[in-house]
């Protein structure tokens, strides 16, 4: 029995090392992708497809990392439901995720911790990710995407943290956040939806759809993004739906 646990611990640690190695190497690969000058692509159809092709590798990479985390959590959940003890690497894995996803760690109730994590550690429909990045950047033509690799309109609130908007209100301190590569912007976007207090409804609906075995598509989830934009009267939702429908972004899910 002891030998079995040692082997399980070794295999789990090996899995974490493999995931880390994969992410590191993928990061290097995606950073080497040359950014097209979308402003110079006059054919709108070609511009849109070029933008999609450029963004997909970054989105896929973040999706894969999240899904690997989720699969490991689901295996731990099974062990806990069977009243099995966790190895030290497994416990550390949980504590690290709690820090990343802003979940309170409770050693005396690990099963509840894992359940709370599974609500946050989940995928985001690629159709919705593409639609939001297209809207927020004008299909890659915005100043903030060109100069700051910001593809989702993320803001920061300390002086010098990003790019100052030209029409910023007097006395305002917000800046548009900058990233080293589009990968950083995608990671920040995932973190916002998976941990932000304003997107709890998004996570609840996603958890319901997941529990029901339904496919996660942007069509069902965009209605929970009312706090993402300053647009009123469902205008942001309608624009996202139109972007997904007109460009058949569902095919990328």
Number of domains: 2
The helix count comes to 10
Q: Could you name the ranges where pLDDT drops below 50 across 5 or more consecutive residues? A: 21-30
Quaternary structure state of the chains depicted = single chain
Largest sheet: 3 strands, antiparallel
Shape descriptor reads globular
Strand arrangement, major sheet: 1-3-2
Top-tier CATH class of the largest domain = Mainly Alpha
The averaged pLDDT comes out at: 89
The proportion of residues in beta strands is under 5%
- Tell me the distance between the termini: 42 Å
- What CATH calls the topology of the largest domain is Lysozyme
Helix amount, in percent?
Answer: 55-70%
Radius of gyration of CA atoms, rounded to a whole number: 20 Å
- Element-by-element helix/strand order: HHHHHHEEEHHHH
Protein structure class: mainly alpha
SSE inventory with pairings:
Elements: H1 2-31, H2 44-81, H3 88-101, H4 110-120, H5 126-137, H6 143-148, E1 155-156, E2 162-163, E3 175-177, H7 182-195, H8 200-211, H9 218-221, H10 235-246
Antiparallel strand pairs: 1-3, 2-3
Helix pairs in contact: 1-2, 1-3, 2-4, 2-5, 2-7, 3-4, 5-10
């Amino acid at each position: 029995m002891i030998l079995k646990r040692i082997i399980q611990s070794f295999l789990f640690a090996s899995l974490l090392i493999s995931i880390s190695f994969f992410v590191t190497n993928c990061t290097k690969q995606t950073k080497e992708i040359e950014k097209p000058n979308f402003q110079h692509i006059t054919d709108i159809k070609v511009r849109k497809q070029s933008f999609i092709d450029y963004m997909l590798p970054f989105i896929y990479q973040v999706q894969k990392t999240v899904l690997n985390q989720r699969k490991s959590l689901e295996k731990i959940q099974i062990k806990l439901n069977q009243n099995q003890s966790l190895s030290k690497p497994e416990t550390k894995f949980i504590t690290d995720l709690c820090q990343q996803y802003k979940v309170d760690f409770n050693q005396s109730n690990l099963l509840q911790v894992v359940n709370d994590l599974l609500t946050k550690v989940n995928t985001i429909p690629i159709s919705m990710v593409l639609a939001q990045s297209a809207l927020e950047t004008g299909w890659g033509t915005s100043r903030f995407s060109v100069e700051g690799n910001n593809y989702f309109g993320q803001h920061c609130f300390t002086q010098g943290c990003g790019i100052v908007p030209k029409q910023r209100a007097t006395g305002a301190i917000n800046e548009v956040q900058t990233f080293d590569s589009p990968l950083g912007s995608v990671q920040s976007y995932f973190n916002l939806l998976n941990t932000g207090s304003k997107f709890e409804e998004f996570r609840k609906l996603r958890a319901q759809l997941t529990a029901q075995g339904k496919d996660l598509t942007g069509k069902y989830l965009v209605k929970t993004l009312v706090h993402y934009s300053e647009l009123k009267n469902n205008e942001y939702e309608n624009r996202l739906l139109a972007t997904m429908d007109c460009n058949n972004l569902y095919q990328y899910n």
